[in-house]
Each structure stands twice: as structure tokens, then as C-alpha cells.
Amino acid sequence: MGMEKQAVWLKDLFDIFPKERVLTDLADRHAYSFDASMGEYLPVAVVQPQSKEQIQRLVRLANSHRIPLYPRGSASSLSGGPLPVYGGVVVDMSAYPKRLTIDTENMLAIATPSVITAELHRKAEEAGLFYPPDPSSSSVSTLGGNLMENAGGPKGLKYGTTKDYVIGLEVVTPTGEIIRTGGKTVKNVTGYDLTRLLVGSEGTLGIVTEAILRLIPKPRARRTVMAAFPRFEDSGYALTRILGAQILPSAMEVMDEYCIRAVEEYEPSGLPLDAEAILIIEVDGHPAAVEEEAAQCEAICREHGAALVRAAATAEEQAQIWKARRLISPAIARLGPTKISEDATVPRGRIPDMMKRLRQIREKYRLNLVVFGHAGDGNLHPNILTDRRNAEEMARVEKAIGEIFAAAIELGGTLSGEHGIGLMKKPFMEMELGKEGVDMMRKIKEAWDPNNIMNPGKIFPDRNEADR
């Protein structure tokens, strides 16, 4: 894109936005050049829309000049979702006006995309309601980012992911129309389900300006159980036995031995250093059922070789058990300056097999690889702690990542359970979907976004990307 042409559309931005909402200084642009992944790309400008009409005018301008637009929330993406890989304009939706209404009669929340997810959790619970999607970034991530990545979290086993709670959207399309999909009714089979298509589309099919979210009654009680296993395989057997006993926990989290050691060294809390795995199991619902199911979970874990089982009844004891899980990220971050977080997902019955493969990959490439994740739904998070300045080690990291994805797919799994494809995983798309499957998705993208202005360079392998 020539400098003269760029100067024209940069000037046009000031016709749409007040000057304080257009950021062009190098320091400002640099602040928007990265997310929580490893990538870093400098945008030409950053804008902070305050209305859907401003976004509509921006999108029409972008189509006229072929300007790449990169919607962005809090930039907690681990897959490079909002990175401005072709320069262009970052659309900072975290600065969009925050509006949140809880409709208790219809058990709905109506929110703008800039609302922080934890704020929705708090407001819903004040009304005696519950919004289950709970990504680990919920204290900083925006609802818009969660919608675009179809965020999950520990409660996905019982309650599903973001897509299961979005029933209506207001969206500015890639060609500049403002449309509404779905609505306030839980049942809606009028035509194609565009709401589901947009959720998880990673900003490639439009910019959300409002969402209608389904809420459910807040569970009356919950109990948490922690079990430590000398052998990782036994934790997998206990997991499947619990589910086979017709118990559906709200969460089942797993930590491998390397996570356990890192957490215990970071903040000692009595975790057994000789364990290969720790399971954290939470059940919720009616108080009587919760008591019975928690006791069953304890018994099953013991029957399958757990050397330590710790149950919690009070909120304080539950918080203490979950503390170990929350400490994983800061604990392992000390193991290397660069943390690469992945989320290969397999059928939960194949978790022991996936763990064996991950150990083989760790040894083969001599890497500091730790694993934790949502064991109940098969969503594992292999994290590699490395140093991006070490070219030789990064070459091994890239090969290891490719083998991790290949192993997940070979075991009947998927490239991503909740982080999204973005920039980091797009080279592997055909490995899972085949050329025909990827081409079908391309056709949808091309129909919605004929000029390829909306978050270009994401999801699809590069060979057919539009020329820029």
C-alpha cells in the first residue's frame, strides 16, 4: 500500500472519529502490536469506536481503500487472534461504551462487547443467576473477545462453552451493514443460525456491537475434591469411572507432575511432589445430591490408586484447593522467559494416550513441557517454557508443536478446544479438516467479506490469502 494512498485514508479516519480516538504515534501503535501469543506486528493506526455507526463508516472506508481491519478486545488471545499482520487499523473494542443489563424475568444478559467477563459473572450472581463460561482470563478479557474465540474454561464439561449461551447478536458486517441475528428467545430456528456462525469466527466475519446471552439459575451448592495419583494413567481411569457412574462434575481439572513441582516451588501448599497427576473435581447442584456425588468421587479416586484425597466443604477450603490450579500460570512462567500455551483436545478416554505422547515429545526435543487442563472434556494445555532468543531451541519448539497437533488429531481430537486458530495454528488447518473442509470455510469468508478486510491473515493457510 503506497504512502500517498495511506495518507489519504489516514486523513479520512479523522472525519469518522474525534482526534483523541485515533492513535498514530509509534508508542501507541506499538502498544497494540502484540497479544498474549508470541507474535508482534505494528498497525498503521488504532481507532477506538464509540458507536456502531462509527464502526459502519470505518468498514465502508476500509472497503473503499482495501484497509485491513483488526478487531481487538483485551488482547489476551493465545493464538494471535487480533494481531495486525498486514498493518492496517486496529479497532480497539475494549474502549467501546460498556453497557450491561441483567433481565432476570427472561434470564438474559444484554451487553456490549467491551464488558469484562468477570463483571458479567458478578452481576449475574447478584441476581441469583449464573453465566458458566469462565476462561482463565475472565478478570481481564472482554465479552467480545470471548465470543469471537468461543471461550471455554473449567466448566465446559457440564455447562458447555460460550456458543451455548449466545442467543442474539448485533453485528457490523464486513461490507458495512448493521444486522441482528437471533434474539431474546431460547428457541429460534428461523433460517440459518448466523449467531452460531459468528461465535468463534475470530473477528473474520464482522464486529459485534451487542450480545444477548442466556443465563441459568445459580447452583445451590458445590463441593470440591482433590486427588493425587502416583501414576498419571490412574487419574484417567478415575475420571472415566466417575463419568460412567452418571456423575457429571461441573469441572475436572488435571495437573501433571511438572506443574505440581512448579506450583509447590512457587508457593508451598503441601502438594505431593511424588504424584504424577492431581485431579481437581467439583460437583454442584442440589445440596443433597452434591454431598452424595462428592463422596462417590472420593471413593472412586481411592479405588483407582489415589494416594491422597482431600475434600472441601466450606468456601474457604474450596478456594484453597483451587488455589493450586490458579497458581499454575505464574508458577510455570518462572521456568522460562517465553511461555507458549497450546490447547490440543482429545476425546477424554484418550487423555492417558495423549499424555504418553506429550512425554515422548518432551524427551525427544529436550524441552521444558508441562501439561494441565480441563480433563473432563479432554482439553489439555501443553505449555512449553523456552526463550525465543534461542534460535536452536525455538526450531525444536516448532517441531514439537507440530507433533503435538498431529498426535491430537491422530487420537481423534482437534487443533483447538478454546484458544482458537488465529495466526499460530493456521498452517495445521488442513491436517484436521482436509483441503475440502478448509475450502468450504474460505467460501463463507469470501461471501461475507469479498474484499478480505476483516482480520485478514487469520485461520486460513497462507497460500490463497488475498494479495496485499
Which topology of the largest domain does CATH recognise?
Uridine Diphospho-n-acetylenolpyruvylglucosamine Reductase, domain 3
Rg measurement, Å: 23 Å
Q: Strand-residue fraction?
A: 15-25%
Number of strands: 18
Query: Major sheet: order of its strands?
Result: 15-12-14-13-17-18-16
Judged by helices, strands and strand pairing, the structural class is alpha+beta
Mean pLDDT: 93
Helix tally equals: 15
Alpha carbon gap, first and last residue? 7 Å
What is the CATH class of the largest domain? Alpha Beta
Unreliable runs = 464-468
Major β-sheet profile:
7 strands, antiparallel
Q: What's the number of domains?
A: 4
For the record, the CATH architecture of the largest domain stands as 2-Layer Sandwich
User: In which range does the helix fraction lie?
Assistant: 25-40%
Shape: globular
Describe the structure.
37% of the residues lie in helices and 20% in strands. With 468 residues, the chain is α+β, with helices and mostly antiparallel strands. The chain folds into four domains: 3-95, 2-Layer Sandwich (Uridine Diphospho-n-acetylenolpyruvylglucosamine Reductase, domain 2), CATH 3.30.43.10; 100-217, Uridine Diphospho-n-acetylenolpyruvylglucosamine Reductase, domain 3 (2-Layer Sandwich); 221-329, Alpha-Beta Plaits (2-Layer Sandwich); 335-410, Alpha-Beta Plaits. The strands form four sheets. A seven-stranded antiparallel sheet has the order 15-12-14-13-17-18-16, sandwiched between helices. A five-stranded antiparallel sheet has the order 5-6-10-8-9. Strands 1-2-4-3 form a four-stranded mixed sheet, with helices on one face. α13 packs antiparallel against α14 (391-410). It is globular, with a radius of gyration of 23 Å.
